[in-house]
Design brief:
- The protein has eight helices and ten strands.
- It is an alpha+beta fold and 319 residues long.
- It has three domains: 104 residues, Phosphorylase Kinase, domain 1 (2-Layer Sandwich), CATH 3.30.200.20; 128 residues, Orthogonal Bundle (Transferase(Phosphotransferase), domain 1); 48 residues, no CATH class.
- The strands form three sheets. It has a five-stranded antiparallel beta sheet with strand order 1-2-3-5-4, with helices on one face. Strands 8-10-9 form a three-stranded antiparallel beta sheet, with no helix packed on it.
- The protein starts with a helix and ends with a helix.
- The relative contact order is 0.10.
- It is an enzyme of class 2 (transferase).
- This is PKDCC.
């Protein structure tokens, strides 16, 4: 009997130790989350909102508030719009939060926390008075017009380089090569003299589709790209409407490199004509700049080469 009692005691102590270890692990995980984000559902009410609806998009409305004396941006699920279904707006907002959670880069707006309490029409069947309750908090930045701000040459090259590095990061992101699907000048703000991207709900990693015909070199790809076979893991992916088996006649391909080319094109259309206007630079730099501008307008430059040329211009300026 004494032996059985000791065995039970050992087993109980072992289980208690296991439970305490699990609790410590959970606490470490919770602290990791708290280290990453300042806000969650428990403390978001402590933000003092002083400006409402300063901006609205397809899925979100934007408020400005303060917390411990610092300005923050609060994005909330926007009120119902006749043109966009509530469920679709919820999906877009949740997608933005999930994508932002997986990206870490200085050129991307910092998310300070989020809270998801319920979705639209959840609750009692007969009475569903609540729309979705989704909130995310971001660092505060200022809107700007690149055409109308005063910049010296060093600042012009700095901003041109930081935008190029952002494109490089998106090309090699943890989610694959990402395209800024809803590219707007208003989706970039200035935070402590850095240009940051603030909108992610239409960002995706799907390259432009094409018809893969291996014996025909010409393709229907934009930017003069080649049509490539899907990668092995993509051709059998559950994200396809049906698996692509090239042995059974599948001709689905992708214009690999389209996403980064598109991002270069849009960054050039919005920012580089103002930042890299040759007449703003000394005469000894204008010829090199004019050549770079021509390549950008033709979208005939890779992101790595763009960064290299901008760094060379910066080196020329500092020497």
């Amino acid at each position: 009997m004494q032996t059985q009692s000791r065995d039970r005691k050992v087993t109980t102590e072992s289980r208690e130790e296991e439970y305490l270890n699990d609790a410590k692990s959970y606490s470490r995980l919770r602290n990791t989350f708290n280290d990453k984000y300042i806000f969650n559902c428990a403390n978001m009410h402590k933000i003092h909102t002083f400006k409402n609806d300063v901006g609205q998009g397809r899925s979100k409305s934007v408020d400005i508030g303060t917390y411990n004396g610092q300005k923050v941006v609060i994005k909330k699920l926007s009120p119902s719009k006749s043109t966009v279904r509530q469920e679709y707006r919820q999906l877009l907002f949740m997608k933005e939060i999930l994508i932002r959670d997986q990206l870490e880069y200085p050129g991307i707006i910092k998310m300070l926390g989020f809270c998801v309490r319920h979705l639209n029409s959840e609750g009692y069947q007969k009475r569903r008075p609540h729309r979705g309750d989704i909130t995310a908090v971001y660092e505060y930045g200022e809107e700007f017009d690149i055409k109308n701000i005063t910049l010296n040459i060093e600042e012009r090259l700095f901003h041109a380089l930081e935008l190029a590095y952002l494109i490089l990061y998106l090309q090699n992101s943890p989610l694959g090569s990402l395209m800024i699907g809803d590219f707007k000048d208003a989706h970039f703000i200035m935070v402590n003299n850095r240009i940051k991207l603030i909108d992610f709900d239409y960002m995706h990693n799907v390259e432009h589709p094409c018809l893969f015909l291996p014996n025909q070199p010409k393709t229907d790809c934009p930017f003069n790209l080649d049509c490539k076979k899907l990668e092995a893991n993509d051709s059998s992916s559950s994200t396809l409407t049906k698996p692509c088996d090239y042995n059974k006649g599948c001709k689905l391909g992708e214009c690999r490199g389209y996403n980064v080319k598109y991002n270069i094109k849009r960054i050039n259309q919005s920012f580089y004509p103002s930042l890299l206007k040759p007449e703003f630079f000394p005469s000894e730099m204008q010829q090199t700049l004019s050549g770079l501008v021509m390549k950008l307008e033709a979208n005939d430059i890779d992101i790595e080469d763009l960064i290299k040329e901008l760094k060379n211009l910066k080196h020329t300026r500092t020497n």
